[in-house]
Amino acid sequence: MTSPTTPLKAAVIGVGSMGQHHARVYTALPATTLVGVADRDPNRAEELGSTYGVPSYTDYGEMLTSEAPDLVTVAVPTSLHHEVASAAMESGAHILVEKPIAGAIDEAQAIIDRANELGRKLMVGHIVRFDPAIQALKHHLDEGELGRIFQIVCRRVGPFPARIRDVGVVVDLAPHDLDVMRFVSGDEPVRVYAETQQEIHTDHEDLLTGLIHFQGGPTGMLEINWLTPTKVRDVTVLGERGMFRVDSLTKDLFFYENAQANGEMWSALEVLKGVSEGRMVRYPLQRYEPLKAELEAFAQAVLDDEPVPVSGQDGLQALRLALALVESGKTHQVVEIGQGHESL
């Protein structure tokens, strides 16, 4: 791992609910120094710039020219990702684009292509990968501790966020869990089916119930909405030897053992010849801020000239799957994921 003698110059475009935290973390990392922030809201930009003692801009192009950052976080509304990401890369910066990578497949592909042409690092902000409980889950699954994976279930529900206007709940939130499913399983979805509803949000869907079938056999289930009064962030992975459960709000990982699979079923229960409750383990985890881990990994990839941990292709696949779920919700048909789906 390389330690910089001179910190990388970092900037943030879009300092709303997520971008402001990127600015905060860049000031705290040894590998980066915050050199500027930009937002179309002059008051918001000026307030954050004043907080961290850096210049603020309403014109991100002016900031890119004046500050010449090495790294840029793009945290503007999804509909502007292509425009802003392209400008940042053209200025010479490596970029982290908040998820989803874009609102359309062609725009996402254009961002990826331009990054390749210019030799820029492109990372997509799928922050859930950096959750300590998700990282631990991935480790235990890679070690084969669960055996074959049967099912992955993700619940991401809560109240409507006022920040969202340009996309529905599927494109805004489903990429988190679609990416987590791909990440922890190491498998790729081949078809999806969804039921979506539009209950309160006036422009887009605000509730999703989705099914995903993976190439290797597991089934995924998604429950996502903006209608639940309390937040739930829950991932369960069911397999031969039991079930892992992640509570992403508390950063906890649990394992519920299948006693029979581990050869510890009580003799009185053997007649059932099925799954039996075994031990429950709550793993001790070192807790840390996922955003800090994400931005550390981004900066380190730039310093070491190594691949970023969440690539543009990862972002593109999560978007492709989310749009397939939207399509299925509209048509009430199963959508196959393959070359024929490229036009979505």
Query: Strands across the major sheet, in which order?
Result: 14-13-12-11-7-10-9-8-15
Distance between the amino and carboxyl termini: 39 Å
Global outline = globular
Describe the biggest sheet? 9 strands, mixed
Helix-strand category: alpha/beta
Q: Tally the beta strands.
A: 15
Query: What is the CATH class designation of the largest domain?
Result: Alpha Beta
Strand content: 25-35%
CATH homologous superfamily name of the largest domain? Dihydrodipicolinate Reductase, domain 2
Q: Tally the structural domains.
A: 2
H and E order: EHEHEHEHEHEHEHEEEEEEEHHE
The parts where pLDDT drops under 50 for at least 5 residues are 265-269, 339-344
SSE diagram, text form:
Elements (H helix, E strand, L loop, with lengths): L7 E6 L5 H10 L3 E7 L3 H11 L3 E2 L2 H8 L3 E4 L6 H10 L3 E5 L6 H14 L3 E4 L6 H11 L6 E9 L11 H17 L3 E9 L9 E8 L4 E7 L6 E8 L2 E6 L4 E7 L18 E6 L7 H15 L7 H20 L3 E2 L8
Parallel strand pairs: 1-2, 1-4, 2-3, 4-5, 5-6, 7-10
Antiparallel strand pairs: 7-11, 8-9, 8-15, 9-10, 11-12, 12-13, 13-14
Helix pairs in contact: 4-5, 5-9, 6-7, 7-9
